[in-house]
Amino acid sequence: MTDRHFPAPPAVVRLAEYTRADQIEILGDSPDPFGVADAGLTWLPKEDHFGIRRNGRLVAHAGLLTLPLSIDGVDTRVVGLGGVAVAPDLRGHGLARAVVSAAVDHARTLGPRHGLLFCRPPLVPLYERLGWRALDRDVRVEQPGGAVVMPLRTMWIPLRDGVTWPPGEVRLLSLPM
Ligand SMILES: CC(C)(COP(=O)(O)OP(=O)(O)OC[C@H]1O[C@@H](n2cnc3c(N)ncnc32)[C@H](O)[C@@H]1OP(=O)(O)O)[C@@H](O)C(=O)NCCC(=O)NCCS
């Protein structure tokens, strides 16, 4: 722990639900808090939610959703991470590290061998710092009008020791998370 972190590691709790009001509590009510509106994508809500509360206020969130994926034509499942958010006034103190770590720890119990996320290019170094790796190939994802190439960066994390990312075409067989 460095000085920039809170005196004690922030306690991450499992949230029973994560509503639009919860997201507004963290990020405010701006029209595009994730900066991805330009991509024009339709996203899935997450299923498992992890959060940090401070003085009763929700200040950080990360969500998980297990999804079908094919790699080189072989069907598998991945645990998608999404909705990572920290209150603007509390950024830079390790809260994203805490919620993402808790979410990944839980993802390791779900079965799939890989975690997956999509992010804006400027966030790649941050996620690399948290153990994620850039997947330098196109990933096709479903959208209401049919499959498209994901315009954001794709990153993955091994959920078990020794897991690598296999070569071959990658298709998310659902809307992205
Ligand atoms: C992205 C976001 C979640 C980061 O939250 P945060 O609490 O400031 O992040 P943290 O302080 O936990 O930083 C995580 C790690 O990344 C590192 N980091 C931060 N910015 C970095 C950068 N530009 N390059 C490399 N590492 C970086 C931090 O040093 C930290 O590593 P450390 O714990 O080893 O020091 C926050 O800015 C946010 O909510 N943004 C708006 C919503 C959004 O875009 N979410 C992402 C959706 S994919």
UniProtKB/TrEMBL annotation:
CDD domains: NAT_SF. Residues 13-155 form the N-acetyltransferase domain. PROSITE patterns: GNAT. The keyword Acyltransferase applies. The keyword Acyltransferase applies. Keywords: Acyltransferase, Transferase. InterPro entries: Acetyltransferase_Eis, Acyl_CoA_acyltransferase, GNAT_dom. It comes from the Bacteria. It holds the Pfam family Acetyltransf_9. GO terms for molecular function: acyltransferase activity. It comes from Streptomyces litmocidini. This is GNAT family N-acetyltransferase. Its EC number is 2.3.-.-.
